[in-house]
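Appendix B. Worked example

We walk through a single record from start to finish. Start with the input: the chain for DSD1 family PLP-dependent enzyme, Mesorhizobium hawassense, length 378.
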Amino acid sequence: MRAYFAALSEALRAAEIFRPCLVLDRDRLDGNIAQVKKRLAPGLAVRLVDKSLPCMPLISHIARALGTNRFMTFHPPVTQAVLDAFPDGDLLYGKPMPVGAAKAALTQGSAGWWSRVCWLIDTPERLADYGALAAALDTELRFAFEVDVGLHRGGFRDPAEIKALTIPGRMRCEGIMAYEAHAPEIPGLFGGAGKALKQASAKAAEFVAALDPDQRRILNIGGSKTALLHGGGVANEVSIGSAFVLPSDFDMPGLDGFQPAAFIATPILKALHPMLPGPPAVSRALQALGLFPRKGCYLYGGKWMTEPVFPEGMKPNGLIGLSSNQQFMGLPAGADVKPGDYAFLRPTQSEAVLQHFGAIAVFAGGRIVEFWPVLPMG
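Next comes the structure step. The output line below is what the pipeline stores for this chain.
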């Protein structure tokens, strides 16, 4: 670990980056892409999740490597950027959009919206609203059903509900989106992840059976934590995003062999023997009890969705709290840290965090080789 972060530090100094930044290890990213290629079940395509990879060069790099033009999208400004960047891109919404948002996108966006976006429908009411929108705009709208296979976050819960629907004339059903993010969290007492995934796959098959044969182009299941555990079911594609950079929330058995590829790097502004405000005796007593560190540092920035990884043993302290300006971090007594060194923190998630620092510094072959611009937040 020490050698790796020493190399990252030298690369940042050589690139004259002395502020908080998001560093992407392209070599590790390529290793994670190779893991997906190796472990993806035959017959499954990958749909890249744009909210988890909110950087067009990053999405393009992965899409080229995997040979996919499928994307799962969540936010109209990002959707428009992906449409513009990928003329042959096929986009599926991963959450249902308010019909007003869909109308604004369809009337203000480029012509590509009309044929390449598949909207998500979770209720009969939303289907009717989108049907009215399609009629008002005199166009055909593609859609997929959001179906509940155990997550219970919304969507149709019974295949009979879908069979009973009358689909408006200007609406074309493309298939289903079945998300089972709950599966890895099911404790062994209740059958564990394996049983939950089998149940989710079986439930998805029931929904597919409720569709006509020409309504089964998109049979989507899975997310980063589960995509590589699927195979042999009715699905023809899985969604993957965060796994490629492996934030800490994705340290799951289904992603064994993947490596973290994204880190926040930030200069250490101060290294000191910390003291709390007030009488020094209070700080000394808390230190003797192990409640307050004897050594610490202040970072340039802070309060990010991260877990500290280097210097080893670095961690926040509840008595001082968090700061987005100068974050205090406690250090082990033997830590050798000085101002000007870099601290490294691992994002807990990739969505939003990757967009927080502007252009991403790309690390490869021991140096910062380029900067990748990120997509807008809104």
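Two observations about the output. The first helix runs from residue 2 to 14. Residues 78 and 375 are 7 Å apart (CA to CA).
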